[in-house]
């Protein structure tokens, strides 16, 4: 039974799952949208929403120390300083007034090779 288990496992062991989510989140930050399988899109959506919330708090923070601490928390998850700066300085200001739901998933159809269900995950435009 899977009682109280909230993570999407996406068929990978822990460190591989973490690396996959990190790479997918970096691609969303860099390109604004990606096409991936539906289970991966649902997993990265949860991961990315938490990062985005931290980025918005870092942008809104009056205290420099709190802003730096939040940037470090984001860096701990992503591992790329350039992406952290882009997320906080360029992407987060667009969503300052939005309470959540920064990404949307659109189903694209089956993948040609193996028939896996594919989805487009992109940042929501206001």
TrEMBL record:
One of its GO terms (cellular component) is cytosolic large ribosomal subunit. The keyword Cell cycle does not apply. Pfam families: Ribosomal_L17 (PF01196). Gene3D superfamilies: Ribosomal protein L17 (3.90.1030.10). GO terms for molecular function: structural constituent of ribosome. The keyword Ribonucleoprotein applies. It comes from the Bacteria. One of its GO terms (biological process) is translation. Keywords: Ribonucleoprotein, Ribosomal protein. InterPro entries: Ribosomal_bL17 (IPR000456), Ribosomal_bL17_sf (IPR036373). Part of the 50S ribosomal subunit. Contacts protein L32. HAMAP family: Ribosomal_bL17 (MF_01368). Belongs to the bacterial ribosomal protein bL17 family. This is Large ribosomal subunit protein bL17. It comes from Thermosipho atlanticus DSM 15807.
């Amino acid at each position: 039974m899977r009682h109280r288990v909230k993570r999407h496992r996406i068929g990978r062991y822990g460190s591989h799952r973490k690396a996959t989510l990190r790479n997918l989140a970096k691609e969303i930050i860099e390109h604004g949208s990606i096409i991936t399988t539906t289970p991966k899109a649902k997993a990265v959506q949860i991961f990315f929403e938490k990062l985005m919330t931290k980025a918005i708090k870092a942008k809104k923070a009056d205290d420099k120390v709190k802003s730096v601490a939040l940037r470090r928390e984001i860096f701990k998850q992503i591992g790329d300083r350039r992406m952290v700066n882009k997320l906080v300085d360029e992407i987060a200001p667009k969503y300052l007034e939005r309470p959540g739901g920064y990404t949307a998933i659109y189903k694209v159809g089956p993948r040609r090779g193996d028939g896996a269900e594919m989805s487009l995950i992109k940042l929501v435009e206001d």
